[in-house]
Design goal:
Mean pLDDT of chain B: 94
Strand content of chain A: over 45%
Number of strands of chain A: 11
Shape of chain A: globular
Number of strands of chain B: 11
Largest sheet of chain B: 6 strands, mixed
Shape of chain B: globular
Structural class of chain B: mainly beta
Number of helices of chain B: 0
Mean pLDDT of chain A: 94
Low-confidence stretches of chain A: none
Order of helices and strands of chain B: EEEEEEEEEEE
Oligomer: heterodimer
Largest interface: A-B, 22 and 25 residues
Helix content of chain A: under 10%
Largest sheet of chain A: 7 strands, mixed
Radius of gyration of chain A: 13 Å
Strand content of chain B: over 45%
Helix content of chain B: under 10%
Chain lengths: 113, 111
């Protein structure tokens, strides 16, 4: 089975801190995604990566950056955390085809105080 | 702007009944359609995918696709309390890697 592992289940950070959310997949997938999920707003795509060092902005990239130095790892970076970034963050991966399903990690609930 | 619409619910059905979840999409070139189930506090997991018009059955689940009318539905037969969750519809356009998700329908199956 594909495994997508997010480094933390819960995180509490202070406003202005730099925050790193890590995601690792073990199935050699080309595509990796970062979403945030808020009540009533559904899943919103922050960034997408289709290969090492390649990235595309999603619907809400402001305040975030990403890094993909190795195929299996996709990191989400909050340069200066703000309270409106309190959310559930979900990482996902899929193989290189265009009809492929997503496999999700277990999520990181981030609280910014 | 590609859109995927779902009724947010909650949809409440008694145990043993058929639950019917619906999804409409705006992009006519959409090719792949997925239903994900998300339990409260958990991440989404795929339960069904469908790529061609008609019905696809897997156990108690049936996905139905009608590309002419641009809708996809999920039927859950013999609903169980353990089916209580939010169901997310996702649509992939031809040549795209990035699915568009609906906001999900909350399903409650009461004993």
């Amino acid at each position: 089975d594909v495994k997508v592992t997010q480094s933390s289940r819960y995180l509490v950070k202070r406003t202005g801190e730099k925050v790193f959310l890590e995601c690792v997949q073990d199935m050699d997938h080309e595509n990796m995604f970062w979403y945030r999920q808020d009540p009533g707003l559904g899943l919103r795509l922050i960034y997408f990566s289709y290969d090492v060092k390649m990235k595309e902005k999603g619907d809400i990239p402001e305040g975030y950056s990403v890094s993909r130095e190795k195929k299996e790892r996709f990191s989400l970076i909050l340069e200066s955390a703000s309270t409106n970034q309190t959310s559930m963050y979900l990482c996902a991966s899929s193989s290189g085809g265009t009809n492929e399903k997503l496999f999700f990690g277990s999520g990181t609930q981030l609280s910014v105080l | 702007q590609k859109e995927v619409e779902q009724n947010s619910g909650p949809l409440s059905v008694p145990e043993g009944a058929i639950a019917s979840l619906n999804c409409t999409y705006s992009d006519r070139v959409s090719q792949s359609f997925f239903w994900y189930r998300q339990y409260s506090g958990k991440s989404p997991e795929l339960i069904m995918s469908i790529y061609s018009n008609g019905d696809k059955e897997d156990g108690r689940f049936t996905a139905q696709l009608n590309k002419a009318s641009q809708y996809v539905s999920l039927l859950i037969r013999d609903s169980q309390p353990s089916d209580s969750a939010t169901y997310l519809c996702a649509v992939l356009s031809g040549g795209s890697y990035i699915p568009t998700f609906g906001r999900g329908t909350s399903l409650i199956v009461h004993p």
